[in-house]
Fold this protein.
Amino acid sequence: MQTRRQIFFAVGAAGLSSLSPVALADTAAGSVVGLRGACLVQRQGRSTPLKMGDAIAATDTVTVPADGKLKLRMADGSVIALASGTTLTVATYQTDAGGQRQNAQLTLGDGLLRAVVAPVGHPASFEVSTAVGTAAVRSTDWFIEAKPGSAQVGVLTGTVSLTSRTTGRAVTIPSRWGARLEAGRDPVPARVWAPEEFQAVITRTDVP
């Protein structure tokens, strides 16, 4: 178990050199490094089955079936694992010429994802939007689950800011805590998550 966790957390870490738009690299946003079931990518109106090593580009939407799981390694070294029944769109994933993240914007339709976000030495965004709000993170290991009318965030390490799309109010969630957001409301205050709660989402997103 320890070896598998070490593999999952082995993500790249390096400083960010420039925020100039000229330095942004026009490359793939990420690639498939773990796969179970008939996962699909929708690109330019066409759905195609995914296989190991396939590239994922900005504007792609990936869909994980009820019996599937998917793991992506992004261009900056961040790792995103998707549980069964999850739909995710990579709205934007910009890196500089050195492969360091500048701006990452993801949209979670339904389902659960785990993100291990590669640290950077300069301000850079990593945001996941749902129907009810947006979670913005710094270097961290965290989970977000979207359901009709709600979203829930749990943080293993680092911090996440969860903001209501309707009210604009936000709650900051520290390590080992979680928070919930209902449609049209402020986020509920963060609370400590039990080890069993974290283990449940780890199991659902673990891709062998």
